[in-house]
Amino acid sequence: MTATIDWYVALSAILFTIGALGVLLRRSAIIVFMCIELMLNSANLLFVAFARSLGDLHGQVLVFFVIVVAAAEVAVGLALIVTIFRTKRSINIDEINLLKG
Amino acid sequence: MEGTPVQNDWYFILLFVVLSPILAAVPMLINYLLGPRKPNFIKQQTYECGVETVGDAWVQFKVQYYIYALVFVIFDIEAVFLFPVAAAYGQLPLFAIGAAVLFILLLADGLAYAWGRGVLEWV
Amino acid sequence: MEFTPPEINLLIVAPVLIIMAAGSLGMVIDLFMPDGKKGWAVWLAAIGLLLALAQNIALWNGNYETFIPQNGVAMVVMDNFAIFLNATFLLTGLLVIPLSRSYLQRTGLEKPEYYMLLLFSISGMMLMGMANDLILVFLALEVLSIPLYIMCGMLWPRPESEESAMKYFLLGAFSSAIFVFGIALVYGATTTTAIPLIFDAVAANGLNAMIVTGLAFLMVGAGFKVAAVPFHMWTPDVYEGAPTPVTAFMSVGAKIAGFAALLRVLMLALPQASGEWVTAVAVLSTLTLIIGNVVAIRQGNIKRMLAYSSIAHAGYILIAVAAAADNPSAGVSSALFYMFAYLFTNLGAFGMVIALERNYGEGNLLDDFKGLAKRHPWLSLAMAYFMLSLTGIPPTGGFSAKFYVFGAAIEAELYWLVLIGVITSVISGYYYLRVVYLMYMFDGEGQLITGRALQFAVFVMAISTLVLGLFPEGLFNLTAEATLSATRLLAGG
Fold first, then answer.
1. What is the ipTM for the molecules in this complex?
2. Which of B6, B63, B80 shows the shortest C-beta gap to A82?
């Protein structure tokens, strides 16, 4: 039994769903953030798997861009989380509620 | 890499997964069975090397430490764009080298900015 | 292995390069300037924007392509569509700068970084307009968003500002993750991310489930950016907490860039799937119009009210996008017209909000507008005019824009959507005209803090709105040309 492309699509769909659910359900900003990274990486997995199965290098290059963008987001996001923690002593997004939505 | 050889590879990994905990567990088990036990207060304490901790371990780091780490993350990952250049260095025309140099200059601009803002000083 | 460099002509991308260079240069100059001197950054940004605008206009009608790899499909196109959008973004930048200056000084925010981040964000928006490849669309989306996250939080340690940045960041990153997953699915289905090649692949092999799923993800991702209901929940909080000039910039620039992405994806990559997306866009539009306009009525804070108003306006532009499915030229050109008119009207209204805000978060209530007409007759008149334009009462740019959008929708036989648009416009009159009512019919203590730059910018925007209201044909012809060039490129492959 060899792993076909369907397996990779299924795996990345599962990872994406876990990430999306985490973003919607978890309350800690750091964990929400990690779930977003999981979603981005599930897309990366999909790119690489498709590139491999379609025999097209393009997809592998795209992963570089996604990785770098994710790193830039990490830098900005963690800086924001640290700043908000220093002010509020909490990163629970339920307690970040000065602005009523 | 299809059919049986692939399957054999997987069996090897399965075997490894089963064997490695056993290999790790056996010496611990022998140690537990044969080793002498004379507990006293000092021995029961959490092992820690160096001097005893004073105060809470959850001290605040200087915020500059975070920025230092964040700057590192960016530069670390940006290096990914240089791998293709390095891999194909022999065949590259001057234009591609120029693009890579421009890329590094832009990174240097960012580094100079971070430096000028005092992020790189250890505090 | 032979390496063939892509065909690159840097003159074609000069507008965006000028903006990026000005931003990078600013970071270097900042190192050598003493801390006290801050005025240079304004001039650097303004000159960069003007130069880029001049070069941008010089490229009009050129239909250039550049960054062409071996497969012959350019990654960057400089058609009139891109040039029109670029001009919109550059004008946004040029108008936000005079609006920001005195606000930044009184909130202690006057740092060169503000202008550098503004430039970087604009460069991302411009890339979005020029992108001919989905991965470039994604990169542009991030280049425009990441500086905005920081700009929202620039008033730290004020908790509201931090909170706004945090919410915008988490939702923005969430939406871009969805967007990139959509790109991955489309890539898997068509073996390419180049927009014309996606079109060809769909033309050759037809649609399949994976493309449609990818399209859905792309639409959700873009829906977050343009703040369409039900992806709007971040908007009021982020708009309220961010420094007001940043809110103004975001409400115009980021929204137009989001629509640029949406139009590229829907109209140029996947027009053959219009049967699939037109219903979705129409439903989004209906929800956005109703919820945006109805919830805006309840708001007592002007920034929140304008946030819901900006959600509602996304709904009107979505009508144009839905109309573009059946009637591409009228739909796309009316969307472009709407965005251009919205730029002046909305920035003008925000200019007044900025002038009214004494300190960060003070003077943002609707009640603070009471009695302004007596003390500041001219600026109050301008504000009243902007409110009329946002409602869509002639002779204003807002009216012309709605006129074209509804016209395109009627041609596309989306009568019920037009009906909802008209009804919600009437509803919107209630909360827009309440501001006018408060300014003219009450006595109050409100004072505007205006510099010459802000007055000039508000004056320019009021005149532009008036001109667009009285003589809309000129701009409409430009938008029609912009649309034609994009569709011609598509037909040429």
1. 0.94
2. B63
